[in-house]
Every structure is written in structure tokens, then in C-alpha cells.
């Protein structure tokens, strides 16, 4: 009976949130349109050129048949980290789930690697954040280093504190997935699905963040730049970074604000990872802990090496 009450309450809350957002979008059509348009432009100019080529190449490599019967654990971890962490969001989730389907990773390993193999692509951090936002390529490299140092430390600490070594030792005893058709064509097909997922979440959460920040600014005495940056940072990372640049560029804390927003990722990216990981029923607990770790540790490391 208690479970039934909780289920009904959860359903009512969901309905209330959805209808509340629908009403907000109806009452603020121009703001919603402007937010969606800004999200679409950011996706096309800041995400698509950096993300699409790497997703296709990563998928192509993963879909090639693995002829090695027994691969050492460290090589599987290194493969997942290199392919996943350097491809940008959500390539890490795609890589880990694909390797789990192929029988290269166990469920425990996949959960830990889902949290560790989660980083923005080098081209995005160095090309967009470093060059265009910071105006300094070396600052982009330092931020990228801070992100990867935090991820590797988290993974090493997580492995060290596991109670049972066997839980991360043996991958699932699944047969090697048979490759059907041409690997490149299959990679392009699956990459298009991922890109649509990324575009959908970026545009939706950019619009939502813009509408909520406008409403919040109208209801309370808060400067628009602050409320908009906070709202967009919570909902959509790229839009939050752009808003922070528009309103806080040149201030001493600006680089560290960007580092914090990128570490937070935003609900848009978390939703992408959740949808992808759900296909293999990978535990999201390490991922959640890893994101909290990143929000705290990345800005500190970036400050120390900046």
C-alpha cells in the first residue's frame, strides 16, 4: 500500500511539473524560442563539429571484430578510457556500453568506467573553451589536464576501495557480438542516433533554462546575468558556459567559473548518459558520485596548475 501511495505521489509530481512547464512555455513563447534557437546554434557551432567525427571513428573501431581472445584487464581499461574520455560527452557512455555488449567489461567495471570515462573532448576544451573563451590555448590544456587528473584519481580510488577484487576482475561471460554488415556503415548509423539524442537534449534544456531564468529574474530581485548563468549551468553546460562568458568575461574568477560549470555538466549531458547506460542496466551510482567528485576537485586542481 505504501508503495502504491508513493507511486501515485510520484506520478502526480511528474504531471504537475510537465503541465507547469507547458504553461510556462505557452506564457513565454518568445523566450522559449530564443533559448531553443541559442541551444541549436551552440550545438551546430560548438558541439557538432567537435563531436560527430570522433563518435563515428570511435564507433567504427568498436564495431571491428576483436580477434584477441584474452586481453589483460589494464588494456581493456586503457582502451575504454582513451576512446571514451577523449571523445567528448557522451562518447564515454557509448564506449563503455559497447564494450560491455561485446563482453569486454563486466557490469561492475562498466559502472566504474562510466564515471571515469566522462570528459569533454580535447577539441572542445582546447579549441572552443581555450581559444575562443579563454583566449589562451595553454589555459585550455590546463583545464583538460585538471579534468583527466580528477577522473583518473577517482577511478583509482574507487578500485582501491572495492571490497572484492573479483568484482572488477572478470567481464561478463557473453559471446562476442557478431558484426553484421559493414562496420563503417553501422558506425555512421549509430552515431546519427547519438547525435540526435545530444541535439534534442541540448536544445530542450537550453530553452528550459532560459525560460526559468527569465521567470526567476522577473519574480525576484536578481541580476539577469547571474540567474541565467546559474539556470543554464544546471540544465545545459554549453549554454551555461556561453552565458558565463557573456556576463562574467574578464573577471578574475571567470576561468574557475567555467571549470565549475563544465564539471557540473548539466542535466542535458546527464540525461544523455542515463539513456545510453540504461540500455545495458549499468549502475548509475558510481557516475553520480564521480560527478560530485569532479565538481569539487576539478576547479581546485585547475586553480593549482593555472
TrEMBL record:
**Top-level taxon of origin:** Bacteria
Q: Which residues form the signal peptide?
A: none
Q: Which UniProt keywords apply?
A: Membrane, Transmembrane, Transmembrane helix
What sections of the protein cross the membrane?
42-62, 82-101, 113-131, 143-163, 194-217, 256-276, 288-305
Query: From which lineage does this chain's organism come?
Result: Bacteria, Bacillati, Bacillota, Bacilli, Bacillales
Keyword Transmembrane helix: yes or no?
A: yes
What protein name applies here? Answer: Sporulation integral membrane protein YlbJ
Amino acid at each position: 500500500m505504501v508503495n502504491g501511495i508513493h507511486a501515485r505521489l510520484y506520478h502526480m509530481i511528474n504531471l504537475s511539473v510537465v503541465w507547469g512547464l507547458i504553461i510556462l512555455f505557452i506564457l513565454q513563447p518568445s523566450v522559449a524560442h530564443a533559448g531553443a534557437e541559442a541551444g541549436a546554434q551552440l550545438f551546430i557551432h560548438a558541439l557538432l563539429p567537435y563531436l560527430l567525427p570522433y563518435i563515428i571513428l570511435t564507433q567504427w573501431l568498436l564495431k571491428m571484430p576483436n580477434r584477441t581472445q584474452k586481453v589483460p584487464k589494464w588494456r581493456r581499461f586503457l582502451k575504454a578510457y582513451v576512446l571514451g574520455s577523449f571523445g567528448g560527452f557522451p562518447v564515454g557512455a557509448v564506449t563503455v556500453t559497447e564494450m560491455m555488449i561485446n563482453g569486454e567489461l563486466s557490469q561492475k567495471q562498466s559502472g566504474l568506467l562510466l564515471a571515469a570515462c566522462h570528459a569533454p573532448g580535447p577539441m572542445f576544451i582546447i579549441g572552443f573553451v581555450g581559444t575562443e573563451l579563454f583566449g589562451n590555448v595553454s589555459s585550455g590544456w590546463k583545464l583538460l589536464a585538471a579534468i583527466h587528473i580528477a577522473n583518473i584519481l577517482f577511478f583509482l580510488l574507487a578500485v582501491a576501495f572495492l571490497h572484492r577484487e573479483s568484482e572488477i576482475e572478470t567481464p561478463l561471460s557473453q559471446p562476442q557480438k557478431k558484426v553484421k554488415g559493414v562496420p563503417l556503415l553501422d558506425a555512421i548509423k549509430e552515431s546519427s542516433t547519438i547525435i540526435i539524442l545530444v541535439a534534442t537534449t541540448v536544445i530542450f534544456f537550453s530553452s528550459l533554462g532560459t525560460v526559468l531564468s527569465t521567470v526567476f529574474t522577473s519574480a525576484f530581485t536578481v541580476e539577469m546575468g547571474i540567474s541565467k548563468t546559474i539556470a543554464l549551468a544546471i540544465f545545459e553546460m554549453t549554454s551555461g558556459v556561453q552565458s558565463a562568458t557573456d556576463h562574467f568575461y574578464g573577471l578574475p574568477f571567470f576561468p574557475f567559473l567555467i571549470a565549475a560549470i563544465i564539471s557540473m555538466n548539466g542535466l542535458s549531458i546527464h540525461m544523455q548518459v542515463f539513456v545510453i547506460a540504461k540500455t545495458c542496466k549499468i549502475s548509475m551510482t558510481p557516475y553520480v558520485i564521480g560527478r560530485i567528485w569532479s565538481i569539487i576537485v576539478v576547479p581546485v586542481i585547475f586553480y593549482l596548475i593555472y
